[in-house]
Specification:
mainly alpha; meiosis; SYCE1; coiled coil; Synaptonemal complex central element protein 1
Length: 208
C-alpha cells in the first residue's frame, strides 16, 4: 500500500522533523497538507480494497453455499440410487430363486409325466395280456360248449351255460373296470401336460 499511496511508515513517524541542532521545529503547513492528502488517498484506496475483498468474500460465501447445497442434493441422489440398486438386486435375487423353483417344478412335472406314461404303457400291456387271456378262455369255453353233449348230460347243460355266462360277465366287468382306470390315468396325464404348459407360459411371461 505504501508504494501506491506514496508514503510509508517513516512519514507517519517523522511528521515533525528535527533541525540541524537536534531540536524540534514546526513543520510547514504545505507539508502537513501534502501528507494529509496522501493519507486520505491511502485511506480511500484501502477502503476500496476492503470493499473489493468483502465483495470477493461474499461471492465466495455464496459459491460455497451453492456448492454445499449441490453436494447435499448429490448426496440425496446417491442415496436414492443406492436404495434403488439394493431393491433391484433384491428383485433380481428373488427372480433367480423363482426361476430355480420353476425349473425344479418343471423337472418334477416331467418326471411325474414320464412315470404316468410308463404306468399307462404298463397298464396297456397288462390289459392286452388280460384281453388275450380272456379271448383264449372264451374260445376255450366255446369249444367246451360244442362238446357239451359228449361230456355232460343234457340235464347239466343249462347250469354249465349259466356258469359260463357268469364267468363271461365277470371277465367283461373286469375289462370295463380296467378300461375306466386307463381312461382316468389318461385324463390325469392330459391335465398334467396342461398344467405344465400353463407353468411354462407363466415363466415366459415373468422372464419378459
Amino acid at each position: 500500500m505504501s508504494e501506491t499511496t506514496g508514503f510509508n511508515i517513516g512519514d507517519l513517524i517523522n511528521v515533525i522533523p528535527l533541525n540541524e541542532g537536534g531540536g524540534m521545529h514546526e513543520p510547514k503547513v504545505e507539508q502537513l497538507m501534502g501528507k494529509l492528502r496522501r493519507l486520505q488517498q491511502g485511506k480511500r484506496i484501502l477502503e476500496e480494497e476492503i470493499k473489493e475483498i468483502k465483495c470477493v468474500s461474499d461471492s465466495s460465501q455464496k459459491e460455497l453455499a451453492s456448492l454445499q447445497t449441490e453436494a447435499y442434493q448429490l448426496e440425496g441422489i446417491l442415496k436414492e440410487k443406492e436404495e434403488l440398486c439394493r431393491k433391484l438386486q433384491f428383485q433380481s435375487a428373488e427372480s433367480e430363486q423363482d426361476s430355480v423353483r420353476q425349473l425344479n417344478q418343471n423337472r418334477k412335472s416331467e418326471e411325474l409325466l414320464e412315470q404316468y406314461r410308463c404306468e399307462i404303457q404298463e397298464f396297456k400291456l397288462k390289459h392286452r395280456k388280460q384281453r388275450m387271456k380272456f379271448e383264449n378262455q372264451l374260445l376255450h369255453l366255446i369249444e367246451q360248449h360244442k362238446n357239451l353233449h359228449s361230456v355232460f348230460s343234457p340235464e347239466r347243460l343249462p347250469d354249465e351255460i349259466t356258469s359260463a355266462e357268469n364267468r363271461r360277465s365277470q371277465l367283461l366287468a373286469a375289462e370295463q373296470m380296467k378300461l375306466a382306470q386307463l381312461h382316468r390315468l389318461q385324463e390325469e396325464l392330459e391335465e398334467m401336460e396342461k398344467h405344465k404348459q400353463r407353468a411354462t407360459t407363466a415363466a415366459g411371461t415373468q422372464g419378459e
